[in-house]
């Protein structure tokens, strides 16, 4: 079935982003405070190549499952290679360190990227147990990741979901704040053209300049079939967020969330730290989610309130 969460051949979507946090329950409370519905904690596993035994990957998560895309919040579970990478990133700062893009066939795209000369890790098959109305089911996905350190922004990957209905259960996709879609990932960079070119090569899409009267003002955008990645000059991003997240370093600094009814955010818009920018609301991440910024904007066909 065609959907934003099940890309067809040649489509690319902004599938999810990842916050790295030290305290997953504090992060849950911060998300619930914003009107999000949050899934139970789930530890990620992968099969041992020799025995087939399910082993911890090193991280586990809670998620905000939007009708289009999702927001992942990761915590440490074991000192595996991935777990140690996670701890190293978290020691730098809590916040956004992961971007994942959905494709129809991650294995084929992985082979294409290797042929194109990109330094890729081996293809991996991950799974995790997901709570359902009837008990538990296994969510499975194939992931292709760039080698560690190839993207200064953090962990950048493409993936294919094999159990879309298990991941996007209707009970988790309804939110009090009327959130509908992971509309955009915001990157701050001292060299936005260079950062956009790196992502463009990985995603097979060309960045285009934009200027708008909304919160982002100016920069480069890689438009995807669902969602986008926005690259801002560091001074523009610093002015937007209110602080330089990683001075002099290209980094993920914010998320654009499309909502169906902006009036559902009236309480958030009234908070002292919130800013109304045009028809959008900009709100800093709570400390439990790291340093960065939410931008809540009207979904296509939604109400400005």
Sheet with most strands: 8 strands, mixed, barrel
Using DSSP, what is the number of strands? 16
Q: Return the average pLDDT rounded to an integer.
A: 93
- For CATH, the homologous superfamily of the largest domain is named as 2,3-Dihydroxybiphenyl 1,2-Dioxygenase, domain 1
Briefly note the structural class of the backbone: alpha+beta
Please state the CA-atom Rg, rounded to the nearest Å.
18 Å
How are helices and strands ordered from N to C? EHEEEHEHEEEHEHEEEHEHEEE
CATH architecture of the largest domain: Roll
From the 3D structure, determine the CATH topology of the largest domain: 2,3-Dihydroxybiphenyl 1,2-Dioxygenase, domain 1
Low-pLDDT segments: none
Count of the domains: 2
Read across the widest sheet, the strand sequence of neighbours is 1-4-3-2-6-7-8-5
Helix residue percentage:
10-25%
Our count of helices gives 7
Strand content: 35-45%
Q: In words, what does this structure look like?
A:
With 305 residues, the chain is of the alpha+beta class. It has two domains: 13-172, 2,3-Dihydroxybiphenyl 1,2-Dioxygenase, domain 1; 179-303, Roll (2,3-Dihydroxybiphenyl 1,2-Dioxygenase, domain 1), CATH 3.10.180. It has seven helices and 16 strands. The strands form two sheets. Strands 1-4-3-2-6-7-8-5 form an eight-stranded mixed beta barrel. The chain is globular and about 55 Å long.
